Amino acid sequence: MAAISTIGVFAHANAGKTTVTEELLFRAGKVSKVGRVDYGNTTTDNLAVERERGITVRSSYVSFGIKDKVIQLLDTPGHIDFSAEVERAVAILDGAVLVVSGVDGVQPQTVAIWKMLSERNIPVVLFINKLDRAGADIDRTIDSIRAHLSKNVLLMNTYKKETNKIMPHKTDAYDLVELLSSVDDMVLEKYIGGERIKSDFLLSRFQLATQKGNVFPVFTGSALNGVGIGELMDGIYNLLPEYKNNSNDFSGIVYSSKYEVNKWLTYVKVLSGEMFVGYEMPTDDTDNRLKIKQILKTDGGVMKSVSKASAGELIALPSVYIPVGTMVGKNAGDIVKLSYINPLFTVGVKSKDMKALSDALAILNKEDPYLNCRYSASTNMFSIDVMGDLQADIVATLLKNRFNLDGIVLSDSSIIYKETPVGVGLGKAGYKKCSNVGISVRPLNKGEGIKFVSNFSTDFLFAKYQKQVERLLVQRYSKSGLRGWELTDAEIAIIDGKCDNAGSEPLHYNIAAPIAFMRALQNAGTKMLEPLMEFELSCSADKLSVAMAELTKNYNTSIETSISGANLYIKGTAPLSVSKNFPRIFARALGGAFSFVQREVGYIDALPDVQCTRDAGFISPLNVEKFVSSMNGNMILLDKGLGERGGKPKFPRRNNFIKKREALARKKTNNR
After folding, report:
1. Where are the beta strands (DSSP E) in 541-632?
2. 190-212 as b/e, with b when 16 or more CB fall inside 10 Å?
3. Which of 431, 574, 548, 400 is nearest to 47 (CA)?
């Protein structure tokens, strides 16, 4: 089988990423004519909204060959609002091409993408584009790459504007040795020892250092004119790694699910082994199997049926829906988190036809679970979670174009807060005399998220019921705290419980566990958190005093500034309630000539006056009678046998481990 490599193309919006993809397809002979973004006829922008607006909204997959290697290429969104889509693509890559505008240089979203690639240790080659444009400058762009991305870059060639041609860049051997010595012990040893280092050895070590993500080759050109693309293709072939696999057992991961032409397409990267038509594929931890009836692979930009797929290949399974992040085959049912980017805002959505809107949003929510679509009876609106106003606007356009919905109305966006426990809380609930569970909730340090613990004996509460309680609380009920916001930085623990081999059943714990959890949360109390944003502003260097005046006036924080050529870069942090106003403030102060991106880097305590609530999207266990009724339960059977129905619970078998954790938490607090 031919070598195979999955490559992503990334860039700040309007740096020419999709044009680079088109040129690669054309050079590989997969399209007869190069598509243009401004003409709306590119191969990878296949949604109507992408063609209309000239932006990429979701990742698209194409393939082509370079010599004996198959390249599977993902064209990704460039706008910050679709960063979660970008991160899902990063999770399955073998390498990446990062496109940087030769006019604008490194822009804030370029830095955000670079951080995603670096965190996953993805090897990268860079392509400086648009060098035919007025104001383009290779040296200035290289300086901005070294200042904001990495110093370990090597210019591979140079674009000559006068001739519109690429010339090889003559790299001094000493400079190459210096670069490799900083990342490669073998080169360093020869260098220190005074050995004569052969060029073939240096080239092989440079290739290896690139494939390890330690150094970064830089190519140049003009994608619109097709200049420099051949050299970039050689770089992709020679310098980016191919997929390696050491197992014969089939396994794969679902990285995307799309609803197209009234059927689902589930996209899978084959991680090991082989999938074939007729294969009965495990999809969860039960004995259930999905029989594979058809496998699709992309050839160029066209999907074609194949009989089998091997490790490293990207495939699509038609008429199949499996949630994004699900492992299939070996380790089936395990969920892998492909994105760590959380939506920042919630937006209300309504339409003239609410039933049709509900159906449409259900599909969009399956495609992108981060939308977290919910219905609120109090407002008669659905709500969705988004990164920003552009994404909300795109969702509205998709509802109109893809689902033929008219009269879509969006409410103003509001910040997504979170809740965290203030203290330690205990809660217990039971259903019938035979089934009960005790839960504790306690705060964790900021950034620790949700942790579930159970050292409780399975003699009293069987393992299957403990697993059920964990699944219920972590995957569902922790998503809505006392005020309806998702719980974070909290440990949830089973500390007591009872079941009976003959009388207990799953329904009992579907009722008891959420109620016990909410009772524990009420006893602990919660406080509100809001996103802490790391932001970067880029503008003309002569605007330094104006930009700094606005920042210090609106938010007093430590701010880093740097100047590269004619560009000013300002970095800082601020609560989202403050930073969300920065684009409007800077547009007024700087006259629109600026670039601004921000990303969430954690959560901080919200201001004391922030006490807004959110509809959970389901009947909350806080409303006990309504909740029990919704679960087809009977209130008479609730807490039967606990002694004090609805009162303060008793924990006859409360574990010593929670006492130890409480003592440790107090000790840590006292030592601060």
Report:
1. 560-564, 567-575, 594-605
2. bbeeeeebeeeebeebbbbbbbe
3. 400
The CB density around residue 520, as the number of other CB atoms within 10 Å, is 26
Quote the pLDDT of residue 38. 59
**Where are the strands (E) in 41-152, listed by range?**
60-66, 69-75, 95-101, 124-129
**CA–CA dist 69, 71 (Å, integer):** 6
Number of neighbours of residue 135 by Cβ within 10 angstroms: 11
pLDDT in tens, 568-583: 888 888 899 988 888 8
CB 444 within 8 A of CB 489: yes
Cα distance between residue 587 and residue 595, in whole Å: 10
DSSP β-bridge partners for residue 327:
253
Longest alpha-carbon distance in the chain: 89
The residue count for the chain: 672
Interacting residues of 471 by C-beta distance below 8 A, sequence separation 6+: none
For residue 391, give the nearest of 417, 364, 353 by alpha carbon. Answer: 364
Q: Which H or E element spans position 85?
A: helix 83-90
pLDDT at 627: 95
The CA R_g of the chain, rounded to the nearest whole Å, is 28
Half-sphere exposure for 294 (CA within 13 Å, toward CB) = 12
Q: Which helix (H) or strand (E) holds 577?
A: helix 576-579
Taking alpha carbons only, the member of 284, 391, 378 closest to residue 345 is: 391
Q: pLDDT-based confidence at 151, cuts 50/70/90?
A: very high
Q: What is the dihedral of CA 150, 152, 157, 158, to 10 degrees?
A: 50
Q: Which residue has the tokens 């091409």?
A: 97
Give Cβ neighbours of residue 546 (< 8 Å, ≥ 6 apart): 589, 590
The region, left, alpha or beta by phi > 0 then psi within -120 to 50, assigned to residue 214 is alpha
> Which pLDDT belongs to residue 437?
96
Which amino acid type is present at position 577?
S
pLDDT band, residue 663 (cuts 50/70/90): low
β-strand pairing of 409-410 with 435-443:
unpaired
Q: Cβ–Cβ contacts within 10 Å for residue 452, how many?
A: 16
- Other CB atoms within a 10 A radius of the CB of residue 632 amount to 9
**Single pTM value for the model:** 0.82
β-bridge mates for residue 270, sequence order: 252
Residue ranges of alpha helices (H) inside 138-240 are: 138-148, 173-181, 185-192, 199-211, 229-239
The predicted-structure confidence for 255-272, as pLDDT tens digits, reads as follows 999 998 889 999 999 999
Three-state secondary structure of 163-178: CCEEEECCCCHHHHHH
Q: Is the pLDDT of residue 350 over 90?
A: yes
Q: Which of 661, 330, 642, 358 is nearest to 490 (CA)?
A: 661
Task: Decide: 296 and 289 in contact? Cβ < 8 Å.
Answer: no
The residues that bridge with 494 in the sheet, in sequence order, are 439, 454
| Mean pLDDT value across residues 284-288 | 78
For residue 672, give the DSSP letter: -
Query: Which of 123, 219, 207, 210 minimizes the C-alpha distance to 167?
Result: 219
Distance CA 507, CA 633 (A): 8
Contact between 24 and 34 under an 8 Å Cβ cutoff? The reply is no
- Within its chain, how far is the Cα of 106 from the centroid? 22
The bridge status of strand 124-129 relative to strand 153-155 is unpaired
Looking only at the bridges linking them, the beta strands covering 216-220 and 153-155 are parallel
Helices (H), 124-184: 138-148, 173-181
Which region, left, alpha or beta, applies to residue 109 given φ > 0 means left and ψ of -120 to 50 means alpha? alpha
